[in-house]
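Moderator note: this is an archived Q&A kept for reference. The question asked for a predicted structure of one protein chain; the sequence and the answer are reproduced below.
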Amino acid sequence: MAGAAFRKPGVEITPLSRETLQDRVYRHVTELILDGSIVPGEMVTVQG
């Protein structure tokens, strides 16, 4: 039964996130810019 889903009553399974590290970093930096924590054009280093 390849691909068959086995369900157990009372157990909820949520799908895994398929977000890459690059996606997470891009989203986080974008949020920092929009919040004003990072000024557009400001130098950002890997060390922080």
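Archived answer notes: The mean pLDDT is 84.
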